[in-house]
Amino acid sequence: MPVADLVAENITKQFESAGQALAILQGVSLELSAGQNLVILGPSGAGKSTLLQILGGLDPPTSGTVQLRGVNPFELAGRELARFRNANIGFIFQDHHLLPQLSALENVLIPVLAQQRVQRTSVERAEQLLAAVGLSQRMNHRPGQLSGGERQRVAVARALIMQPVLVLADEPTGSLDTASAQAVGQILCDLSEKEPAILVCVTHSEALADQFHRRVSLANGRIVEANQSSI
Predict the structure, then answer these.
(1) In the beta sheet, which residues pair with residue 7?
(2) Each residue of 30-79: pLDDT tens digit?
(3) Which of 81, 145, 154, 171 has its Cα between 20 and 30 A from that of 136?
(4) What sign does the CA torsion over 182, 186, 189, 195 have?
(5) How far, rounded to the nearest angstrom, does the alpha carbon of residue 74 sit from its chain's CA centroid?
(6) With left for phi above 0 and alpha for psi between -120 and 50, is residue 18 left, alpha or beta?
(7) pTM (two decimals)
């Protein structure tokens, strides 16, 4: 049986609070392969964003392991880890984090600039991604000239520019109106399948969650599958 592209095993995360260990995650395990998507629901403080940061190699777990295509990012050091994240993981946040002085096209190309000079093939890919998110006529507009939904579409294209194995989305529609949120959610799910990439999203939005193939919740630090008990 082939090994999944993303394997998280028995992830725990503890923080010190008032001299005591506060357990945020307790034995979380996940397996996902290219083209699959997963949405994680749960109340504020449940550990959703913490789990996303661990899966993305931004914050090490207290215990447990994460492997992306057989590589444990927390065994990498410094620049090697940064290069691994840039090449293999795309991030989308509630705030688009676009650079205001750059055009939509230039913002999409930022991850490429972190590793190499921009080649024509990268520009063509950025143009294709922007067209795929409905911004073929807005590529040269700066963020201030775009709507909130359009800015988040640029962020989706930027997350996919390096053809990542894994795309992590943290409340990607949280600041959008209902129509824009619906459109961005659909675009995100469609593109992750076409690329293909693993898509893991955390949200409070039931409407966004309904667009995903698989949904789980975080409860008491553990993953709870829809209509199932804690695992």
Answers:
(1) 31, 67
(2) 999 999 999 999 888 889 999 999 999 999 999 999 999 999 999 998 88
(3) 171
(4) negative
(5) 18
(6) left
(7) 0.91
